[in-house]
Specification:
Oligomer: single chain
Strand order of the largest sheet: 1-2-3
Order of helices and strands: HHHHHHEEE
Radius of gyration: 31 Å
CATH class of the largest domain: Mainly Alpha
CATH topology of the largest domain: Lysozyme
CATH architecture of the largest domain: Orthogonal Bundle
Number of domains: 2
Helix content: 40-55%
Strand content: 5-15%
Length: about 190
């Protein structure tokens, strides 16, 4: 049975937070839920001895959310149910017992789909950010070469230097230290 990675957990919890409490309200919900993950007091007490009012404290809520996520993950694993954002969201919304028994309320499927889609979007965004950082952190290898060309042209010898896609040449008939570019001189080869 596959286990969720820390990145999977983070993306799933971020999605649950966004679906549960998109406006970051701090008051109690209609069923007594509180905080960014809309915990009920009974769920909060499963994982901590801290006062339920701390469900509005982001650090405390994140800690309890991670513990609850792992509790759900273990329960799904023990039941032989795939561990993914969708199934985690099902259990988060209607309870682990309902998911394991297959008695999931109809509205929970839409909730789980929203969470799963958001978590997937966050995962793709995270991957794109990591790819962009890797591309910046690993610059292309510089192409540095020095060439002396003693060909039979009227402007021999000429010297050229190519670096990182730039090409400079000092021509025999040019003034001292004269530089020509491929666009300005037909004898210069572009690498």
């Amino acid at each position: 049975m596959p286990f969720a990675t820390a990145a999977d957990r983070g993306e799933t919890l971020r999605a649950i937070n966004l679906v549960e409490n998109p406006s970051n309200k701090t008051g109690y919900g209609p069923r007594g839920e509180l905080g960014p993950y809309q915990f009920r007091a009974s769920t909060w007490r499963m994982h901590t001895q801290k006062a339920f009012s701390l469900a509005n404290d982001r650090a405390a809520a994140d800690e309890v959310a991670a513990l609850h996520y792992e509790w759900i993950r273990r329960g799904l694993n023990e039941a032989g149910i795939a561990i993914n954002s969708y199934n985690i969201a099902l259990a988060w919304n209607c309870g682990l017992t309902a998911v394991v028994s297959g008695r999931i309320p109809a509205g929970t499927y839409q909730y789980a789909e929203q969470v799963s889609n958001l978590a997937e979007s966050f995962a793709q965004q995270h991957l794109a950010e990591q790819t962009a950082v890797a591309a910046v952190a690993t610059p292309p290898a510089a192409k540095n070469d020095f060439q002396v060309d003693f060909s039979s042209t009227s402007e021999v010898p000429h010297f050229s230097l190519s670096m990182d896609g730039l090409h400079f040449a000092v021509l025999g008939e040019a003034p001292a230290n004269g530089i020509a570019s491929p666009a300005s001189h037909p004898l210069l080869a572009v690498n």
